[in-house]
Design goal:
Elements lengths: L1 E3 L25 H4 L7 H13 L6 H13 L3 E4 L6 H11 L4 E5 L6 H5 E6 L4 E6 L6 E5 L6 H4 L1 H8 L1 E4 L2 E4 L5 E6 L12 H4 L4 E3 L6 H13 L12 H12 L5 H16 L3 E3 L3 H17 L7 H12 L4 E2 L1 H5 L4 H11 L5
Parallel strand pairs: 2-9, 2-10, 3-6, 6-9
Antiparallel strand pairs: 1-3, 4-5, 7-8, 11-12
Helix pairs in contact: 2-3, 2-10, 3-12, 10-12, 11-12, 12-13, 13-15
Length: 348
């Protein structure tokens, strides 16, 4: 099952016949909501965050992590129970930044061509024409990604790592803003294929949404009495604003001491008790980039140890494999990372 909305900000247009609807609400003009030329990185973050929080009640921390991943150029893996708002979060983000959005429901019979696209023979012109797959978008929701076969899962590897895909011997560039939000259910394992370490490592952050407080859940019920919240979301910034946010995150200053701090934290995961496989140098890069992105959305021009510590768990937890005996003793990746953060010397 694929739900699609148009791709914006890509060098080429959608294939003829693509079913697409504009990500614009009829309840107001997007231009009335956006004054993009003067927005600072923090203002861009605040506008998007406020827009998402109008629908996703009580999820401030998750929204901050999601936008830090978006600003860093990475991708997100959401592992949570059904009905907690994973799909809604992706849709509202896409509407908030006026981005193309497509959703793929991963199933065991899904093929790589269902994601990347396929060439179709045109009998009238007597030639083949390529029809873009859902991967040619801005925000891609890979729903229940662990239900597809490893072959199909791997179709996303090149797209996530290099912002391009190779189809039928030809490389095709993806959008400048390409962001994958993948989901999986942590309690249902029948008919699933666990993601291999190589693909887990491609996700910058992994976190859950969790259940909101009773007060926030009541607010959700009240909101649904009057209207459909997602459909009423109006764009508040543009894709160019988001790309400028990414540029600002790249320019954040980081000291040599903080670089060494990042490397020491990641290296400590490889020798920690109970760890079978620690985090790779790619994790060091992801931790650094996410910390810089967090600094940008907080309105600073430099990163601090607090930025690193705030994103350490969601950046590192999915990259660690525990020994069986450690799991039996109750150890978890979060416990290991917390112990490392407590013991590591923080630069001043």
């Amino acid at each position: 099952m694929k739900t699609s909305l148009p791709l914006l900000g890509r060098n080429s247009v959608n294939a003829p016949g693509t079913n697409a609807d504009l990500l614009v609400s009829t309840n107001g003009s997007p231009n009335d909501q956006m004054h993009s030329s003067t927005l600072t990185p923090r203002q861009v973050y605040q506008k998007i965050s406020t827009n998402i929080e109008s629908v996703m009640k009580g999820q401030a921390t998750s929204i901050r992590r999601l936008l830090a991943a978006l600003a860093s150029g990475g991708h997100v893996l959401l592992e949570d129970y059904p009905g907690t708002g994973k799909t809604t979060l992706a849709k509202v983000l896409a509407r908030s930044i006026q981005a193309g959005f497509k959703r793929i429901q991963f199933t065991p019979d899904l093929l790589p061509s269902d994601i990347l696209g396929v060439s179709v023979f045109n009998q009238r012109d007597q030639n083949f024409s390529f029809h873009d797959g859902p991967v040619f978008t801005n925000i891609l929701l890979a729903d229940e990604i662990n239900r597809a076969s490893p072959r199909t899962q791997s179709a996303l590897l090149e797209a996530m790592g290099e912002n391009q895909v190779s189809v039928e011997g030809e490389r095709r560039q993806l959008s400048d803003l390409f962001f994958v939000i993948a989901t999986q259910n942590p309690i249902e394992f029948r008919g699933t294929y666990p993601l291999p370490e190589a693909q887990m490592d491609r996700f910058a952050l992994q976190f859950d949404l969790g259940y909101v407080s009773l007060e926030h859940e009541v607010a959700v019920l009240t909101s649904h009495q009057t209207n459909h919240l997602v459909e009423n979301v109006v764009p508040c910034v543009t894709l160019d604003d988001v790309l400028r946010l990414r540029e600002a995150a790249q320019k954040i200053r980081i000291s040599e001491e903080l670089k060494h701090y990042v490397v020491k934290l990641v290296a400590a995961t490889r020798t920690a008790p109970g760890i079978q496989l620690g985090a790779s140098p790619r994790a060091s890069v992801a931790l650094l980039l996410c910390a810089k992105a967090l600094s940008a959305i907080r309105g600073r021009e430099f990163s601090t140890p607090d930025d690193v510590r705030d994103v350490a768990r969601p950046v590192l937890r999915h990259r660690l494999s525990l020994r069986a005996e450690a799991e039996l003793d109750g150890a978890t990746p979060d416990v290991v990372i917390t112990d490392i953060l407590k013991s590591a010397e923080v630069p001043r």
